[in-house]
Amino acid sequence: MDVLPRPLSEEVFRQLATAGIIVILVAVVARVVLVFVDRIVPRLTGRTKTALDDLIINAVRTPLFVFIVLLAVRGALTQLTFLDETWRQVLEGLVFVGFVLVGYVFVYRLIGNLLSWYGRSLATKTETTVDEQLVPFLRRVIQLVVAAIALIMIMDHFGFDISALVATLGVSSLAFALAAQAFLADTIAGFLIMTDRPFSVGDRIQLPQGVMGEYGDWGDVAEIGVRSTRIRSTDGVLLTVPNSKLTNEVVINFSHSESPNLRVRLRVAVAPDSEIVERALAEIERIALQDPDIVHEPRAPEVVVREIEAYDVLLELRFYVDDARKMRRTKSRVTEEILRAFEEKGIEIATPMQVVHVVQEESAGR
Question: What is the extent of the structural domain holding 314?
């Protein structure tokens, strides 16, 4: 099929020249717009505190130029009246494909730049590798989704039956979601941990019972990943815990920065004697005030009478430490000092007692 009539007439050359001039002029104008964007806009965006606007402009500039040129090409096609309907549809279809590809590149670059900016900003706050793990994963997912949408739009424009393709993609997505349910749950949980920040790398946390198994329920956060979090137990074992287990249960953070000092309770039962109780209170307070790891903020250590029972008096020492890793060690050391002082001072520690009353029944014959 011939594209141009034969012989080429003066009118045909005039139409081609007009179309070419339109495309060239619009391309020049688009180039001027880019020069304005490159020189003027950075001066304005340089006054802002973030680089977000620079990333948006970087994503827009090239697709914008190509989009303007494609508009010029589409307008120039209207000048070519000598084209038959078949070739006109082919050329307009190619221009439509160009528009779709420009839109794909624009959306992908814009979202990719936003994710990169968000990842870097989040990583500086959480001290995690979110920009190295989460952002590439999301960028890949978005690339596949946008590419699928672009392909469907192109196929629909050229008259292909896309209902079967859409149904296939839907079934495939459902099957993938079911197969990767645990992975997706852990990944979403990892994203929530990185944004909500219930704990950070280096924090000492207490997990629900059963999560760490035989290694207890205490540990230090070593790394926060997209799918899992690595926790070093107090035994030195590095455990990999799925993130979904950390978002669906209560996790206690002992290293939070809002109020880092932690209170420890220590109970001692002494004999129910007023003199012994008074001496015990004095000794326990003296030991607590001299311990180097006990802090006086937000409150100085104090000893109180907790309970009075029939055969003992329960005393309670309350003190604060500035690090969760000192809680058990300090409690153990203070307990040893109390036992040693009680032994030296003759302070009796209460022991469980059971009183049995024996009642002698009178003989039946009396």
Answer: 262-345
pLDDT at 96: 84
Strands 262-270, 313-321: pairing is: antiparallel
Our count of domains for the chain comes to 3
The residue type at 92? E
Q: What is the CATH number of the domain that holds 241?
A: 2.30.30.60
Q: Is there a domain that residue 107 lies in?
A: yes
Query: Are 91 and 146 in the same domain?
Result: yes
Could you give the C-alpha distances from 347 to 284, 304, 351, in angstroms and in order? Answer: 11, 17, 13
266 and 246 within one domain: no
- Distance CA(316)–CA(223), nearest Å, equals 38
Residues 238 and 266 in one domain: no
**CA–CA dist 216, 236 (Å, integer):** 11
Contact 320, 298 (CB under 8 A): yes
Mean pLDDT of the chain: 75
Query: In this predicted model, what pLDDT tens digit does every residue of 153-203 receive, in sequence order?
Result: 778 777 776 676 666 666 666 665 555 667 777 777 777 777 777 887 888
Q: List Cα–Cα distances, 195 to 59, 206, 294, in angstroms.
A: 25, 20, 34
Look at residue 234 and give its three-state secondary structure: coil
What is the predicted pLDDT for the residue at 1?
Answer: 47
Q: Which two tokens stand for residue 14?
A: 């005039």
Q: What is the pLDDT of residue 51?
A: 58
Q: Model pTM? A: 0.46
